[in-house]
Write a structure and sequence with these properties.
The complex is a heterodimer.
Chain A: H1 2-23, H2 30-39, H3 45-65, H4 67-76, H5 79-84, H6 90-100, H7 107-133, E1 163-166, E2 171-173, H8 174-180, E3 183-189, H9 194-198, H10 200-211, E4 216-221, H11 229-241, E5 247-250, H12 256-262, E6 269-274, E7 284-285, H13 291-309
Parallel strand pairs in A: 3-4, 4-5
Antiparallel strand pairs in A: 1-2, 1-5, 3-6, 6-7
Helix pairs in contact in A: 1-3, 2-3, 3-7, 6-7
Chain B: H1 2-17, H2 19-29, H3 36-39, H4 68-77, H5 85-97, H6 101-106, H7 108-118, H8 135-150, H9 161-166, H10 168-181, H11 183-188, H12 191-209, H13 213-217, H14 220-228, E1 234-238, H15 248-252, H16 273-277, E2 283-287, H17 292-295
Antiparallel strand pairs in B: 1-2
Helix pairs in contact in B: 4-5, 4-8, 5-14, 7-12, 8-14, 10-12
The chains are: A alpha/beta, B mainly alpha.
């Protein structure tokens, strides 16, 4: 998801560069595009956040298309006047500034400035409307440094369903599992992966900690899928050596969850799943034992607990 | 006989002249899953159970196969095995068939260093640094074979020391492209990444000054193929009757080898520069057991 956003932003950035050149000649070319953005009505908070970003970018674009001209305008603005303006629409403010300094520009320049400021005014109105309706949309969605930053709106992905067994042969159904816990930490590992095995004891400690909050840790050993007996025996041996008593599961490799597991290429990978069966934020890739990763994991757990209450 | 010699010469010279293209093609073939660079995953199909000949990270999003050095450590480091016959088989097969021809023609990291060295600037000879060429054998023995098998945790697992602490190719092909598109991987980067990034930058800078510093001094795969150069089917032959001892081959060699005295030297990466430099066409590639008589030349 985040990757998609990243690509979107990248693509947008590229088109913006292309635009900037064209717009130097025709300022009116933008109207139609910003028009579609202005008339767009987001369906949910995520779309709103998306639109918010696009509109912000549009504003920047309008000014960067004729950067030197706008710079010249900014130089004419009297700092004292800024305070006196009671209207907080940036577009209105610009229009006033253009009016005050109109004799310093040619007619063509004034047209570009007025057009731009007019569009900015409309965009600002839209932005304010968005902010009112979706207070969260101001935040930049989920591509922050820590994995926990990919917060609620960016991920409503359900953890794939499965009908599996634990290593002792007891049936486990994904729906019952997730709805029965306030939070479920799902750790993907395999038997010959040293960092995976290295964190088993810590995960057991986490399981005991979560038990007090009604949550649990479950492990999924990629080798044990399809009930491979030899792999199950080996996994159990390692788990007992490491003192990990929490539940470990397997399911069929051609189930949704099996394909999900096959798509993982970094082990260990740890997902946090809320009571509704939704994956919270981005998975923790690599051992959860480093201080940063532990912090990120706990942030995800807190969020999952919060999701469950609502 | 003359005709055969001529054909050999043409093939030898052709191979060496088109080396850059062969290197490019090999790099592409061993990293064929290019869309993965944008998707941010790696190919995990059946072919990944097979080793590629060169140093080519398994975790490169585009990688078609597995790196033999990485695979060897993975098996040796696991609690079940302390030696990997499967991977050693691959290595011996590649070594016997081609030897260090792989370094010169097929290895993507060798190609990278070749390209870097083409960038104009001050170039330094490595002739006086010859003792450093033995370092790679230590890297092979300790970080690939011994430490992963011997330094183990309570359940008998070792670390892939070379991949974990040294390999710049892993950073270049694996860590950098994966972390660029995958926030999870990005947040997992730590000191190990920083350390190896420094090694990568070091290798890049050194490659501008020296010819193939990594291959000469550090590469454990190069070290293995270096030993196999002695028994490889692919060799270089110097026709003593044609050789006028002008020394052109020695002067043109960037691996500091004198092909006339030791045509199957451990450091020879079979690039074929000497073949094209020879004014009397005395030097050529040879293939098969026939070159045995020539190998005796080394004893002189």
């Amino acid at each position: 998801m985040t990757m998609f956003l990243l690509i979107l932003v990248l693509a947008f950035g590229l088109t913006a560069c292309g635009k900037a050149k064209n717009n130097r000649e025709t300022a009116s070319g933008q109207t139609s595009e910003s028009g579609t953005l202005l008339s767009a009505e987001p369906g949910d908070a995520k779309e709103a956040a998306d639109l918010y970003q696009k509109l912000m970018q549009k504003e920047e674009e309008i000014q960067s298309a004729n950067a030197t001209l706008w710079e010249k305008l900014f130089l004419t603005i009297d700092k004292d006047q800024v305070v006196s303006g009671d209207n907080n629409n940036y577009g209105d403010f610009l229009l006033k500034a253009i009016e005050a300094a109109k004799d310093q520009f040619t007619t063509d320049e004034l047209k570009i400035l007025n057009d731009g400021a007019g569009q900015i005014r409309e965009i600002e109105e839209k932005l304010m409307a968005l902010e009112e309706k979706y207070p969260d949309c101001v935040k930049i969605p989920g591509e922050g440094e820590s994995a926990a930053a990919g917060s609620a709106e960016s991920s409503q992905e359900k953890f794939p369903d499965f009908q599996g067994k634990d290593l002792d042969g007891k049936d486990v159904n994904s729906n019952e599992l997730f709805s029965g816990n306030t939070v479920t930490v799902v750790n993907f590992w395999f038997t010959t992966c040293k960092p995976c095995v290295g964190e088993l004891a810590d995960l057991d400690a986490l399981n005991q900690e979560l038990a007090q909050k009604g949550g649990a840790v479950v492990g999924i050993n990629a080798f044990t899928l399809d009930g491979n007996e030899g792999a199950i025996a080996e996994a159990k041996e390692i788990l007992s050596k490491k003192g990990a008593a929490y539940q470990n599961l397997w399911f069929d490799s051609d189930s949704d969850a099996g394909r999900f597991t096959a798509g993982l290429y970094a082990f260990p990978t740890t997902y946090v799943v809320d009571q509704n069966g939704n994956i919270v934020g981005q998975p923790i890739v690599g051992a959860v034992t480093s201080p940063e990763q532990t912090k990120a994991l706990h942030a995800l757990i807190e969020q999952a607990l919060a999701n469950g209450k609502s | 006989m003359w005709e055969l010699d001529n054909r050999k010469q043409i093939i030898s010279k052709g191979l060496s002249r088109f080396r850059g293209w062969i290197q490019a093609a090999a790099a592409l073939l061993t990293n064929i899953h290019l869309p993965n660079f944008f998707k941010g995953g790696i190919y995990q199909g059946k072919a990944k159970a097979v080793c590629v000949p060169g140093l080519n990270c398994y975790s490169c999003p585009a990688a078609s196969g597995a790196c033999p050095i990485g695979s060897f450590q993975a098996v040796v480091g696991s609690s079940k095995f302390s030696f990997s016959y499967y991977i050693t088989g691959f290595l011996i097969l590649f070594g016997v068939l081609l030897g260090r021809f792989i370094c010169g023609f097929l290895c993507p990291f060798g190609w990278l260093q070749d390209l870097l060295h083409k960038i104009p600037g001050k170039k330094l000879s490595t002739e006086r640094l010859k003792p450093l060429t033995y370092l790679k054998y230590a890297v092979l023995f300790f970080t690939v074979i011994a430490l992963p098998a011997l330094v183990v945790n309570d359940v008998g697992m070792g670390d892939p020391f070379f991949c974990k602490y040294l390999c710049p190719q892993g950073v270049l092909e694996g860590a950098i492209p994966l972390s660029a598109v995958n926030p999870g991987i990005r947040s997992a980067l730590g000191h190990l990444f920083t350390g190896k990034l420094m090694i990568l930058i070091g290798v890049v800078v050194l490659s501008l000054l020296f010819y193939r510093p990594f291959c000469k001094w550090i590469c454990p795969l190069g070290a293995f193929y270096a030993l196999m150069n002695k028994v490889s089917l692919l060799g270089i032959k110097v026709d003593e009757h044609r050789c006028i001892s002008c020394g052109a081959c020695r002067r043109v060699c960037q691996m500091d080898v004198d092909v006339t005295s030791s045509p199957n030297h451990t450091e020879c990466i079979r690039c074929g520069k000497c073949i094209n430099a020879c004014p009397t066409d005395a030097v050529s590639f040879c293939y098969g057991f026939a070159s045995d008589s020539n190998r005796n030349g080394e004893k002189k």
